[in-house]
Specification:
alpha+beta; PH domain-containing protein; PH-domain like; 8 helices
């Protein structure tokens, strides 16, 4: 679905329609309300699955990508994924060792074996964060102080950074958008000294304007400047999505490992055949010696 030309339709609405049609037939959450995720969060996981699955039908998410996604959700909750439990799952479910279809993945999440004892609200917030990052292409978001252009006053705004722009809103609900800073290869970000009673300052420079901002602390300033630099780099490289790039790199690494493993197995098989041939010739030699003695 992500291969369809952008701007042709609202992709989110198309995703929702596809989810409604397929989930009605295939998604079987616990009817007693014991499922780990809500119906809305299951939809977001379905979208994440579609993004991270292999490019062939029927869609399958390989074990490495399952672990990657679950680790990101756990990291968003500041907990560690129980990788041992996931390894046990794949070792027990032999038919799924090559990967999961989306309904198996949702069943795994809803089983609670990997997210046991965690508040549903915390899981929901983590899924939303990962959904925004991977599906929404959000590189970073949070509150910053921004200097106005006309009145030159400082306003606290909620900023959302994507590869193409840095948008800012009145609050994190993002209902009232106040503006957007378009980023391209000619944009840059610079650290500024403290002034106007504001600390941890930096600015984003575009060919037409300079935007001054203030972060809550030096750590946040560093995270924002690095994230904006990454957005500018993606623009310079002509890439619209960080996670499409990362997904491709992980796939290439997997393919490299698989080729290396196949080459090693082939070499082991060749050495085994050589050893068997050597032993066969030794046996023939022994038999020849025995025959000569007689």
């Amino acid at each position: 679905m992500d291969k369809v030309a952008e701007g042709a339709f609202v992709k989110e609405r198309f995703d929702e329609l596809c989810w409604t049609l397929t989930a009605k037939k295939n998604y079987n959450p616990d009817r007693n309300g014991n499922s780990v995720v809500s119906h809305g969060d299951a939809f977001k996981l379905w979208c994440l699955f579609n993004f991270l699955s292999e490019d062939k039908y029927p869609l399958v998410m390989v074990p490495d990508e399952v672990e990657y996604l679950l680790k990101k959700i756990c990291t968003a909750m500041s907990i560690e994924l129980n990788s041992g439990e996931l390894d046990d799952y794949f070792s027990q479910e032999t038919q799924q060792q090559n990967g999961l279809i989306v309904w198996q993945f949702l069943d795994l999440v809803n089983s609670g074996r990997l997210l046991r004892g965690i508040e549903h609200e915390a899981i929901s917030m983590a899924i939303e964060e990962v959904y925004q990052e991977i599906i929404g292409d959000v590189l970073k978001q949070g509150y910053l102080w921004k200097k106005g252009h006309l009145r030159r006053n400082w306003y606290e705004r909620w900023f959302t950074l994507k590869p193409s722009d840095l948008s800012y809103y009145v609050s994190e609900e993002r209902k009232e958008k106040k503006g957007s800073i378009c980023l391209d290869r000619n944009s840059c970000v610079e650290i500024l000294p403290d002034k106007d009673g504001k600390r941890c300052m930096f600015c984003v420079k575009t060919p037409s304007r300079t935007y001054e901002m203030s972060a809550s602390d030096t750590k946040q300033r560093q995270e924002w400047t690095l994230a904006i630099q990454m957005a500018i780099r993606l623009q310079a490289e002509g890439k619209k999505s960080l996670h499409k790039d990362l997904k491709q790199k992980r796939r290439e690494q997997r393919e490299h490992r698989e080729r290396k493993k196949a080459a090693k197995e082939e070499e082991m098989q060749r050495l085994k055949q050589l050893q068997e041939e050597k032993e066969r010739k030794l046996q023939e030699l022994e038999l020849l010696k025995e025959a000569q003695k007689q």
